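Weekly structure sync, notes
Attendees: PL (lead), two postdocs, one rotation student
Agenda item 3: pending single-chain targets
PL asked that the sequence for the first pending target be pasted directly into the notes so everyone works from the same version. It is reproduced below exactly as submitted, 211 residues in total.
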Amino acid sequence: MLRRTKEQVLSDLPPKLIHDEALELTPEQRESYRLAEDEGVVHLAELGAAATIRHVFELVLRLKQICNFDPACGASAKLERLEADLEEIAQSGQKAIVFSQWVGTLRRLAGHFGRFGPSEYHGQVPQGRRDAVIERFRNDPSRHVLLISYGAGGVGLNLQFVNYVFLFDRWWNPAVEDQAINRAQRIGVDGPVTVKRFLMLDTIEERIDHI
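Predicted structure, written out during the meeting:
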């Protein structure tokens, strides 16, 4: 038995091109974000010594979700940028995978991107159907995007036929993001893997990225 780690075969892999897409919230998102942040800070102040990590975490999650979609009207700067990129990818006959930490976000994207033949792969897809989802995505030329959760797609998948990876929202741990990206950057991939990580400026996402 001969086992080689990824570090030993890096020379066999094409490059991984990572681009951070810094975006501005739409006006609708900015207003919702401001209100949620102000209300959350006031609530934490009112709790005083009773405030816990859970209370802070709930506020952080709320702000991160607004960075994806405005809760009132659905406006999304990320959605607009991703749609433009997927148009080019689909026209060239290529495929992309999009990661999010929320199943609700993935389903929202699937409803919007029907013309790209979206496939879903996440915790709410029965285990017995997951292999079929991947095979159909691999072999059906009309399916250009796989919408996948970090939890379901972090390990065990081999998607070396994909050359584009999008992180619609960021995970807390960079190592988990690397595992997700590595589903596509594997031995046998044809050409470089382009990774785009969306990041909303002047938001909790930018603060987490700095940390």
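Discussion points:
- The longest strand covers residues 16-23.
- The helical segments are 27-47, 53-68, 77-91, 103-112, 127-139, 150-153, 174-181, 204-210.
Action: rotation student to compare against the earlier draft before next sync.
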